[in-house]
Queue: 4 jobs
Job 1
Amino acid sequence: MGRSGGSTLPTHLQRPQVQECLDRGSPYWFFRYWEEQSLPDCGRKTSRKRHILAPSQGRYAISKRQAETARDRFLAGLQGPPPPPLAPLAAPVASAPQPALAADLRFGQLAEVWRRDFVEGQAGGRALVAASTRAKYLRHLDNHILPRWRDTLIQEMRAKPVLDWLQQEGQSWYLMADLRNLMSGIFTKAQEWELLPDSFANPMHRVRLPRKWEVRQKRILSPEQTMRVLGRLRDPVLLISQTCLETGARISEVTGLSIRHVDLERGCVRISPPLPLQSECRSATSAKALPRSNSTSAA
């Protein structure tokens, strides 16, 4: 905080770092900054605020460099000198219209738009969401979310009732996280599509889940136990298990392999694509070449 000349008003010279949020629904770029507000007694109040810039992944994503440019534009307007007061008879300056939050807007209405235009939507004849992800979204939406929140007014949604519902509805920590993230994604898309104003506070951002727990205890087999399990298996289950164990590939990637993915000269297995019915890998890092062991080659 500093002072400019003889002015008594503090001025922030700030350039906060742009960060990527990955745990609140759809990933997005954001930064935190300090904002000064005038008080009735002519004083100044400084508060810490969070500003969301744009999606960091997905169809409407921007790069980090673009996000930093957007941050600089926002801070330039925030840190610049205040505009001169308008004359009493001056006409108001027209501003870009912002969508207003309708008093009767319900969560079910936003969910149906999200389902139609995103989950079941297509671009260039290709689905926007992978088939497995789409099936999970629709299952959670129809079986868990809509039966409880379909008729709830958007302006009445609060973090505490949502958290209470998650703790009763979720049979596992992962289900609770999926439901929260899915609901948060619906609000995020609604703001991207200007169905909700930018000033709308996503209530899911305040939903903090309890500490993660496991429904079933995870066991790691010893090398001796692993050999005993493999000794009881028969092909093709044996070959699939050996390939997963020795390459680290996913089960869906291994079951989608064919002879053309095996390079005997280089001694590797190429993962692309993981499933015969998919036109692309599950994630950007799925397409890779994995070394194969001698036992897998012999099989």
Note: The first strand starts at residue 2 and ends at 3.
Job 2
Amino acid sequence: MDKHQKLIAQIRQEMGRKTTKELLEIWVENNRHVWSKEAFEAIQQELFDRRVDIPAQEQLKENSRGIESWTVEAMKREIKRWGAVLVLIGAAQFLLKGNMYLQWGVVLVILGAVHFVVSHHSIYLIDGMLCLAVAIIDISSGKPVGWFQGAILFLWALAAVTKFAWYNSSKERQIEVLTKLGRLPKEPKPKDISQIPGRISPNKVKKMIAQLKRNREWIDWMVRKDAADALGELGPMAQEAIPALEVALEDERKDVREAAAKALEKIGEKD
């Protein structure tokens, strides 16, 4: 028996303790973020031995989850670059004489600086409206420099609104567009299953607990919900996460509270 077969056998010992209903739920959900490829092989063998009709699996969740994480991180980096450009545009306003232009320049510089603190896509909508207002003011100055800066700001405003619409669209739409453009990120590497057969490692559990406690940015509620969902999939093996999940029951977001409640139920279930 080679190493791969031994690993499958170890996982089957764990899976053998689960009810057929539980195995079918894991199989159909097809969550590759939590369960390894070997785990699904073991589940398939176990269901076959129990003479159960094996249903079709849902579309892989690993890729969509990976894309969601990738787009959020890309957005955060992009917002910071966007802010740096706004600071430069605001500084350029000082080339136009007049208190009104100087005041708008200061506003743009401050807005650009805010981009290094705020990482939510709604900042693009604010950019668009403000840049459009400054563009109109610059063009109305009647100066060549004003026309030039106004034209740049007008285009920048259109780009900002487009960015807002993109990040405000559904993840399914983003995946569709990225697929057509050939810009999808590479598939995530297989999860570490060396310490817990078929499961993510204890270090990953601690990482998810840390993610469950994140509350520094507007977008972090999604991270907390995903962490609660993943911990719930671990069942009784995520006992150490119970205190953090109990705190999450009081989370400001309903989605996080519901995910934490479901996770606590799964962790408390008996095999």
Note: The first helix runs from residue 3 to 15.
Job 3
Amino acid sequence: MTDPPTDETADVDAVDTDDTDDTDEARDGVGVGPWTGEWPDDPRYDAELLAHGDRRNVVDRYRYWRREAIVADLDAHRHDMHVAIENLRHDFNIGSVVRTANAFLVKEVHVVGRRRWNRRGAMVTDRYQHVRHHQDVESLLAWAHGEGLAVVGIDNLPGSVPLEETRLPRHAVLLLGQEGPGLSPAARDRLDLVVSIAQFGSTRSINVGAAAAIAMHTWVRQHVIDHAT
């Protein structure tokens, strides 16, 4: 692919732990071959992809597009939702959260704490998703409130309210804690709202990547799907 690296993840250090990239899809037979017929006269298209095919992890409408063109189009339609995750122990769920955030057209993912994170679970979607780093919860909260965003914690803490019964703020940051301990003490008492996800089995909590997906989908259902209908 001819696109130069973009700066959407320039504010964090993503750690590669394997060779996961767009070429993996080519081995799986995903994507499309070379463009057939006359090439489109459109600057969004990439000449190399038109000539050799597009095996990237993108939806069909973005086939053959340059990476910068895809990011620009996503930026024009991103939702008013941000997602943040505390990274105190090098959480391996961050890649999964980034991938899901891309699927739900989240405006930005915020990594709080340790700057480095494992991008394996992102499956290359971090190339199209803006990711921002904050040194600690205090800096995240200061940034969010300066932007007029409510910060909503996702955790089954005492005093939390059921996500299933709560209208999430439209302009919001959904904050998830570290896998295991959940939201840090620094975050718990300083949030605008804390919601819990209903559980019915024996486990104390669900995986933070799964919790993030449920929370993001709830926001999209409330502010995008229900609004459209």
Note: Helices lie at 23-28, 47-52, 67-75, 94-103, 137-146, 185-188, 208-228.
Job 4
Amino acid sequence: MELVLGRLLAVVAVVAGTASCERRHPVVVGYAFGDDHPNVLDVVRARESTGSRRPEIVDATGMTIEQGPPGQVTMASRFAAYPGLVAVVGHGDSRGTLAAAPVYDEARIPLLVPTATSRRLRTISPWVFMLAPDDSAEAAFIATFVVQTLRTRTAAVFYDNDEYGVGLRDFLRTALAARGAGVLFEAPIAEAPIGSFCDAGHQSAEASLVRAMPRDRPPGVVIIAGRTPQAACIGRRVHERIAQTPIIGTDAVEPDSAFVRTVGAAASHFYVVAFWYPGIPGDSSAAFTRAYERVTGAMPHPTHAMLFDALSLVETAIRDVGGNRDAIRRYLAELGVTRPAYQGITGAIAFGSAPRPLYMLRVAPFLTLASPQ
């Protein structure tokens, strides 16, 4: 009897110690982005709390100095070891997220991926949840716009030579072919430092890349599956070589004032794919835009809206089911199945077969909707 009672007391002591440990460590959400404040995280922190279970959000400041996938793996490992961590929002792109995902899978930590588009992320782990449409959906959206709105059937594709750009390139080939169109020319964007290209005249590597595009048989549209600085520079050179040619930037191209200055006259022929834009109807989207402007002094880009939705969704999950990793994973998996879809500012969020919105925006003279999903 005394032995049984002793074991019972030992169990009670362990449970009490565990509970005490949990109280010492608040519920934590990792935010796999840096310290460029003010940012979306400041917008989230500035709003009123909606419950007593609001988590502490820890960003990636100081977690790694490594670049590329190794740095993302290091960051993920440090998040996984962080006391009280129950979920992570990140990482910044497809390559880094694909590298980091196995760390979260092994640690059984839900990972909400705001903007990475590689289709491989859909099946890499049951702990990974993509908010953005994948590269196959984006490619189909672009191909439909090319054929139905621009009414052309030939394209040139410039792409980043990584998981993001190559994925879009491959699916663009398929999607255009399925609509009776095709790629006349394609080339990887050089992994050279950006900054000198647009001022370097026609001897730069990127300008040479554009000049390789046949002038005697020009494509009906140029598609750039790359990042904002490269897209601005390439778009400018395309316009100089083949004026009036429509140019489409994929979702990683977010046209700010620097982009518009760099791209120059090509802006009036430039379109961008977006997951969201400030003019979307709805009170919640308008409220976010106002809050972001108030906190940061700038207009939000689609990436900011996706990050806001990811952080808000994690907070809602914790409020509804508590700070348990398994419970949060189940909550996310059940959205749109046994639970209603989460209504975010970027649209309904459910991690099943329901499509997520995409928009085609015209850059100039103002950023306006050219075509809905």
Note: The longest helix spans residues 2-24.
